[in-house]
């Protein structure tokens, strides 16, 4: 399933992707990690660099931080998540989006 909004989750299998636009200065993506999760997934915000992560861990743990990007300019941003491994799956349960004000700024 590819999420329509942050109220739903996204479960991705090999070579699947998920993108979402949001307004804010920082974003955190959360979901489970464990032995059945993907060995590699990539995340990119806007036209920035692509970073590779792994959700495959020895033990299952729910609601773990899968990705965080901060110090972004004010305004709209796009986050793109893609699976890079042909084994396991990636689940995104929710995202936290932060504005400068919520981070203690003015």
Walk me through what this model shows.
This protein has 106 residues and is mainly β. It has one domain: Jelly Rolls (Sandwich), CATH 2.60.120. Helices cover 0% and strands 48% of the residues. A hairpin with a 5-residue loop joins β4 and β5 (51-53). The protein is globular. Residues 1-8 have low confidence and may be disordered.
Strand neighbour order, sheet with most strands = 2-7-4-5
* Protein structure class: mainly beta
Q: How many discrete structural domains?
A: 1
Summarize the biggest pleated sheet.
4 strands, antiparallel
Question: Can you tag this structure with a few keywords?
Answer:
single chain, mainly beta, Jelly Rolls, 9 strands, 48% strand
Please sum up the structure shown:
The chain is mostly beta strands and 106 residues long. It has no helices and nine strands.
